[in-house]
Amino acid sequence: MRASDRAYRTLLDEIQSGVLAPGTVLGEVEQAARLGVSRTPLREAIGRLAADGLVVQQSPRVTVVSEIDAGDIRELFEVRRALEETAARLAAQRADATAFAALAEQFDRVGRGGAVAPSVYDELFARFDAAIDASVANDYLLAALRTIRTHLVRVRRLARENPDRVRDAVLEHRTISRAIAAGDAELAAHATHLHLHNALEGILTSLEGAPASTEGAA
Fold first, then answer.
1. What residue ranges define each of the domains in the chain, with the CATH number in brackets?
2. What digits encode the pLDDT tens for the residues 124-170?
């Protein structure tokens, strides 16, 4: 692996996980020494993070991890809604129905089994995303989705976990998967729209530190 790729992956993981919090200064000399790379590959890595929107250059010598607030999250979800509803429609038209029927069964079993373990949640949603990507088979759409997912990892970790919301998200994906398996493009898009509405409300409620609303946890 190239030094710049290694530095990029390490910094990306640290930003997404919160190890490098919003506003953290990424000093070139310090980060290069910490990551064991020279300054040229570090600059390449930081350039990629800037293109992702995860860092901003405050001055020629000062780069910081970008802030993220409720307004940023709403804007992210505006784009996410357009992309994921389109992806759901295309998947319903192009997907292997048996793959999504199997996913629907797994979402149903996990969602009705009580609290959902984070590892199970992550594995199921990764499989769902992979199935969507394989079904859509549109490189332009998938590139845009990858950018959105990069930011979503960070947003989810900034928000406090709500076990009820996690379980509801699993069951919402059951509905989406069933619609795709049935070849119902409009139902798949509508179910995706509802899921994203609830996800946004849940994240914003969590960040505000207020009790979850009925709509956000639905």
1. 3-65 (1.10.10.10), 70-208 (1.20.120.530)
2. 999 999 999 999 999 999 999 999 999 998 888 766 678 888 899 99
